[in-house]
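The data are quoted verbatim here:
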Amino acid sequence: MNDGAMDRAKGRAKEMLGRIAGDDRKRAEGRTDRTRGGLRGAAESAREKAKGVRDSLRNQRDR
């Protein structure tokens, strides 16, 4: 599980615990963790796509 997925899972758990306990601060922490996880996941995806483009361009240049 990558860092982004772990943050999203952790955030969901915190948010649920906050709802059950009526703790608004814990719910907010959960939302923050979920958002952070989504951003990390998006950044990782963008990095992987950039690597693919770079590799593709290198392969074309080497031909």
Observations:
- The longest helix spans residues 24-62.
- The mean pLDDT is 91.
